[in-house]
Each structure stands twice: as structure tokens, then as C-alpha cells.
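Recap from last week: sequence in, structure out.
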Amino acid sequence: MALFKKKKTDSGLPEILPEHIAFIMDGNGRWAKKRGLPRKFGHREGAKNFRRIARHCKDIGIKNITFYAFSTENWKRPKDEVDAIIELFREYIVDVRNYIGEEVRVLFLGDKSIFDADLQKKMIDLEEDTKDNHEMTMLLAINYGGRDEVVHVSKILAQKAADGELKPEDITEDMFGSYLYTKDVPDVDLMIRPSGELRLSNFLIWQSAYAEFYFTDVLWPDFSPEELEKALVNFAGRSRRFGGV
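Predicted C-alpha cells:
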């Protein structure tokens, strides 16, 4: 997995940074509950922090960032909470247009077909409008599940085999990877999960096969750029052998 050097202006950071950081934005509901507020207020604060962390990643030179915004399992939550998250997502698509002039490419991970036609079009248009931007790639996983993605790719390859376009023995890891939602970005180097939970929660399970994991008790709305830099320092101290010695 590729790594790259930091921008020269960031003297407090490690010399080598991950090329791809994935964030599980967890703890929004608990953040609100601690303050006696409805859970949807926590999601709004979490969305504000998403913007702050995305901006900081760009400023320090991270090339690829992925945020876990809404999983295939999150539809089980109360309807008012789900509706609030989707409304925030609509606002995000409008707001993220501000990134276009900053050479940021935007990709959405997950099954778009479940959303209203106008929202699907907004996502597709944003991907198209930013496809030639190269300074940073920002990915947002919404209606996404790692197992669902693996099944999705398996169905595509199974159909190709049934149609005689390929033989089962032709399928390789590289071929499989070329049909993932993340086919155009490198695998995850650093997976960050705030909120004290110690699990992957069905997020990028293929792409995180050799990722380093960083867990913290800080809730996502309070996960600051300083907390991110702690994770980067921790990452820099890891020995990554990828199965070797």
C-alpha cells in the first residue's frame, strides 16, 4: 500500500502519512444524549465535524478519505432519525459543491437505487462534475455495507461466467477488486473509529484487509484535527509487514 510524505508546512506531523484514511463516524447519538438532546442533533454536529476533518485532511495532504455515513443496517433506526440523516445528506451534496473548485473528487459508495430519483441524480451529477479532480478523493459511504458490496461483485462475476464471458478460474483478487465501489482508489491504510467501540461494523471489509486500526473513546462530534494527528503519530509508529517479516 502506498504512503506519501507530508506537506512541508506540517512540521508537527510524522514524515510519512497514510494515503487512504477511513473514518467510522460513530457516537453522534451518544453525544446528543449526554447533553439531553434528541439524537438528530448529534448527527447535525457530526456532519459539521465531517466538514472540519475533511478540510484538515486536505490541508495536510491526505490523498484519499472515506467516511462511513449510513450503513445498510442503519435503516433499522427510528424513522425520524433516518429522515434527519438523509436530510443532512441532501445538505451535504449542496455544500460539497464548494470543494469542486479545490480539485477534490467526490465518490459515493453503496447502492444508490434505494434513494429518491432526484437524490440519485444529485449524487451522479456530483461524481461526474468532479471526476477530473486529482488533489484529493473524498468518498462517502451511504446505504453501504461491506458484505453487501462483496455480494454485489460476486453477482456481477457470476453473471459474466454464466454468459460465457469468463471462466471461474479466471477470477483473481485483482479482477474482484476492479468491480468494487472503491476500484479507483487504493486500499485503506488507516481505519479510525471514535466513540469507544472496537469493531469494523461491516465497513470496507475487503479494502481493510491490511489496514491499521485506531480506536478512541472520543465521540465523533468531538473528534478534532488534534485527535486525528494523534492517530497519525500512532500510525507512523506501526510496523507494517503485510504478511512478510
